[in-house]
Every structure is written in structure tokens, then in C-alpha cells.
Amino acid sequence: MTGELVAFMIIAVFVIGGAIFMINMTKVVHMVFAVALTLIGIAGIFVLLHAEFLAVVQVLIYSGAMTILMLFGIMLTKHRDEEQPSRGIHNVLSFFVVAAFFAFLMWGIYTTPFPAETADVSTFTVENIGTVLFKKYVIPFELTSVLLLVALVGAVILAKKEAD
């Protein structure tokens, strides 16, 4: 048992635990923290796979932006914290549907013939991605940043109008 396998197991427990907590939490803010835990754990798995760029993008985009988006959604909606009645038959049915989906995925993974050769990943470095992004795709990159800035300003204006 290697250190990488132990680290993977620990991170996988955090990812699965965060997903289970997100489903079972009743307060929306707690759900946001559980989703953030799950997404940061996925970034840890990317680090174990030596995909550092994807790990940083995972943390910046999903863990940061999606959590902020969910908090804006909480602020802009009139959330009432009410207890939902227990739905026992739905929980049992959901468990069997998820178990069947998991079995289908495992069957697909084990019966798919994957090629034995691996791709040459030495050309896909962060430096090469940055070079292509800031030379070939600089205009779409800047337009996306302006669009996100406008969306952020619009969300702040909408939140301020609700308070007034």
C-alpha cells in the first residue's frame, strides 16, 4: 500500500462524505459548505493525478465561484427554513436507483476495452496552456472576464434593490 493510495482513500472519503452531507443537510448554508468540501476534495484527486492546472481551475471556478453563486441565490431568494416530512418509500426507492446506476457504471468500466498505451502528457503543461490561452484566445478570454464582471455588478445591484 503506497502513500498515494492512502492519500487517495482519505480524499475519496472527504469527497463522498461531503456529497452525502450535502444531500442530508437541511440548512442551505450547510449544503454550500458540503459542496465546497466535495469540490476541494476533487481538486485533491486532480493533484494526485499530477494535473495541477485542473486542480487550480477546480478550486477557483467550482469551489469559489459556484459557492459564491449559491450564496447569492440564498441572498436573493426568500428561503424559509421549514422541516420537510420524512418520505421513507422515496428514500428506499432512491437507494435502489442509485445502486442500479452504480452497478451499471461498474459494468461499463470493467467491460470497456481501454487501450494499453498512454498519451504523451509532456506537451500538455501549464506553460503551454497559458501560451495558447494568452496568444491565440486572448480576445475571448478578456470578453469572458468582462462578462463575469458585469454579472457580478448586476448581482450586487439586484441584492441592494431587494434590501431597499
Summarize the structure.
This protein is an all-alpha fold.
In words, what does this structure look like?
The protein is mainly alpha-helical and 164 residues long. Helices cover 78% and strands 0% of the residues. The longest helix has 26 residues, at 138-163. The protein starts with a helix and ends with a helix.
- In what range is the share of β-strand residues? under 5%
- Multimerization status: single chain
Count of DSSP-assigned helices: 6
Helix content: over 70%
| Structural class estimated from helices and strands | mainly alpha
H and E order: HHHHHH
Q: Unreliable runs, pLDDT <50, ≥5 residues? A: none
Biggest sheet details = none
Give the radius of gyration.
21 Å
What are its keywords?
single chain; 164 residues; mainly alpha; 6 helices
Blueprint (SSEs and pairs):
Blueprint: H1 3-24, H2 28-48, H3 52-76, H4 88-111, H5 126-135, H6 138-163
Helix pairs in contact: 1-2, 2-3
